[in-house]
Design a protein that fits this description.
The structure is a single chain. The chain has 484 residues and is an alpha/beta fold. 38% of the residues lie in helices and 19% in strands. It folds into 2 domains: 267 residues, Glycogen Phosphorylase B (Rossmann fold, 3-Layer(aba) Sandwich), CATH 3.40.50; 188 residues, Rossmann fold. The protein starts with a strand and ends with a helix. α1 crosses α19, α4 crosses α5 and α5 packs across α7.
C-alpha cells in the first residue's frame, strides 16, 4: 500500500506546533505497522527553514528529477521535487519553488492561499512519479493540503482513478478562507462552488471543501471529534460537520525522542522503576533558573505557543499567587506579543517564583518538561495536545483543562484515587483562572503532603502507551477499508 502525506509542516525540518510533530512521526509508524507491506512518504514545501535545518544536521536531499509545471492563471510555476532518505525513516519529498517558499517564515503572507494551492496541485500532478506508482491513499493535513481531496475527486480523478483521500483536521480554527477569484487557479470546476462544498459567504473555504470531498475525515482525538460538531468548538462549521462522519484517532508521540532513560538533552537518566534520576534533572533545571532547592515547593512548567487558545493568559494572571501556593513557574515559548510581555513582566516582578524564556528551544523544552514536577496545559480548546503526553512519559504530572485530547489522555478520578495510582493528572472543567488555580492547589497539596501518592501518579503516567503504533494501526484499518 502506497500512502503519501501532504502537509505544510514536518518535524524536525518545519514545525510551528503539533501538526509538524504528527506528520514527522506518523509515516514512520505506518511503515513499521505495515511490516514491509506499506510504503509511506511525506511531501512538504522546501521552505528556507527547511534548508537551514537540513544544513544544520548535515543532510542533503537528492534531486528526484521530478518537475511539476503548475498553471496559476496568468503564469506557470515550476516545482522541483527533492527527496531525503534517512535510516529507518519514511522518505520526505520537498517541493521547491523559491518564489513561493523561500521566505523568513512558514505562514503569515498575503498570498498564503496561492502558495498552498501551488503545493497541492504540484503534488497531485506528480504523486505517481514520487511514489513509484499511483498512491493508494493521499492523506492531507489541515487547510494547507485540503485542496488535494477536491482535486482527486474532480479534475484529477482520471489521473488517479483508484486513489482515495483522507483529510485530518488538526485545528479547525484555521480554514484557508480566500477570494473566490482563486477558484479557477485551483484546478477545480465551478460546480464545487456551492454551500455543501467550497463556497463560504461568497468566498472560497479550502478546508470546508476538502471535508466535503475527502473519502474520509479524521481528527486527532475522539473528544475533539465530538466537540467540533458543537457551536462552541465548531468554528462555524459545526452544522456542516454534523452531516459527516468524523473519525477521532488519538495522536501518539515519538517515545524514543521522549525517553528519559536515553534523552541526550538531560543531565541524568531514569525510568518508571528508578525515578532517582529525575531529581537530578530537576536540580539541573533549578540551577538554570538560579533558584535554591526547596524540596516542598513544586515547580510548574509551561512549554507552549503563547496564544489565547492555549489559555496562557490564565497562567500569567496567577503569577502573583505562586508564592502563596507555594509554587514556582518556568515558562518557555513564543507567540502573541501581549502574552510574551506578561510573562517577561512576571519574571521581573516575581524573581523567586517565575522564570521566562521567550524562545523556541528544543533541548531546553526537554529539560523543562522532564525537570519540572508538573506541566500546565490550560488550553481553552485542544484538538489533541502532545506536551501532556511528553510530560507523562517523563514522569511529570500534567494539570490540564478537560477538553479535546487533554480529556482523552489525562485521567483525573479524584485525589484519593490519584494517590492510589488510578489516574495520571489533575483536570479542571472550566477554562478560567479560578479553575486553573483550583487544580494547581490540588497538585501542590498532593506534592507536599502525599509524596508516595505523587509518585503513584508519576508511575501511572509513565506506564501508559503513548507510542504511535496504536494510532498507526487505526489509520491502516481506515485506509484498508477505503481501498476495498
Amino acid at each position: 500500500m502506497r500512502i503519501l502525506h501532504v502537509s505544510s509542516e514536518c518535524a524536525p525540518f518545519a514545525k510551528s506546533g503539533g501538526l509538524g510533530d504528527v506528520v514527522g512521526a506518523l509515516p514512520d509508524a505506518l511503515c513499521r505497522a505495515g511490516h514491509g507491506k506499506v510504503q509511506a512518504a511525506t511531501a512538504i514545501p522546501y521552505y528556507r527553514a527547511v534548508k537551514l535545518a537540513l544544513a544544520k544536521q548535515g543532510l542533503t536531499p537528492e534531486d528526484t528529477g521530478v518537475i511539476a509545471d503548475v498553471n496559476l492563471g496568468a503564469v506557470t510555476a515550476r516545482v522541483r521535487f527533492l527527496r531525503l532518505d534517512r535510516p529507518k525513516r519514511a522518505p520526505i519529498f520537498f517541493a521547491a519553488n523559491d518564489a513561493a517558499f523561500d521566505r523568513d517564515g512558514l505562514y503569515g503572507y498575503e498570498d498564503d492561499a496561492l502558495r498552498f494551492i501551488l503545493l497541492c496541485k504540484a503534488v497531485v500532478g506528480v504523486a505517481s512519479k514520487l511514489m513509484g506508482g499511483p498512491p493508494d491513499v493521499l492523506h492531507a493535513h489541515d487547510w494547507h493540503a485540503a485542496l488535494v481531496p477536491g482535486l482527486v475527486a474532480t479534475n484529477a480523478r482520471s489521473l488517479l482513478p483508484r486513489t482515495r483521500t483522507v483529510l485530518t483536521l488538526h485545528n479547525l480554527a484555521y480554514q484557508g478562507i480566500c477570494a473566490k477569484d482563486l477558484l479557477p487557479i485551483t484546478g477545480l470546476p465551478w460546480d464545487v462552488f456551492h454551500l455543501d462544498a467550497f463556497e463560504w459567504y461568497d468566498h472560497m473555504n479550502l478546508l470546508k471543501g476538502g471535508i466535503a470531498l475527502a473519502d474520509a475525515v479524521t481528527t486527532v482525538s475522539p473528544t475533539y471529534a465530538r466537540e467540533l460538531q458543537t457551536p462552541e468548538f465548531g468554528a462555524k462549521l459545526d452544522g456542516f460537520l454534523r452531516q459527516r462522519k468524523v473519525f477521532g484517532i488519538l495522536n501518539g508521540v515519538d517515545t524514543e525522542e521522549w525517553n528519559p532513560a536515553r534523552d541526550p538533552h538531560l543531565n541524568a537518566h531514569y525510568d518508571v522503576d528508578h525515578l532517582e534520576g529525575k531529581r537530578l534533572v530537576r536540580a539541573d533545571l533549578l540551577r538554570t533558573c538560579d533558584w535554591p532547592e526547596l524540596p516542598d515547593v513544586p515547580v510548574f512548567g509551561v512549554v507552549s505557543r503563547m496564544t489565547a487558545q492555549k489559555g496562557l493568559d490564565l497562567v500569567a494572571s496567577l503569577a502573583s499567587e505562586l508564592h502563596g501556593l507555594p509554587a514556582r513557574l518556568v515558562v518557555l515559548g513564543t507567540g502573541e506579543p501581549g502574552l510574551e510581555q506578561a510573562f517577561q513582566l512576571a519574571a521581573r516582578h516575581y524573581t523567586w517564583n517565575v522564570r521566562t524564556q521567550i524562545a523556541f528551544d528544543g533541548p531546553l523544552s526537554h529539560r523543562i518538561i522532564a525537570g519540572c514536577d508538573a506541566l500546565l496545559v490550560p488550553s481553552r480548546f485542544e484538538p489533541c495536545g502532545l506536551t501532556q503526553m511528553y510530560a507523562m512519559r517523563c514522569g511529570t504530572v500534567p494539570v490540564v483543562h478537560a477538553t479535546g485530547g487533554l480529556a482523552d489522555t489525562v485521567d483525573d478520578p479524584g485525589d484519593a484515587a490519584l494517590a492510589r495510582g488510578e489516574g495520571t493528572g489533575f483536570a479542571f472543567d472550566h477554562p478560567t483562572a479560578v479553575g486553573l488555580r483550583w487544580a494547581m492547589g490540588r497538585a501542590v497539596r498532593m506534592y507536599r503532603t502525599q509524596p508516595e501518592g505523587w509518585r503513584a501518579i508519576q508511575r501511572a503516567g509513565m506506564r501508559r502507551d503513548w507510542s504511535w503504533s496504536r494510532s498507526a494501526g487505526h489509520y491502516l484499518n481506515l485506509y484498508q477499508a477505503l481501498c476495498r
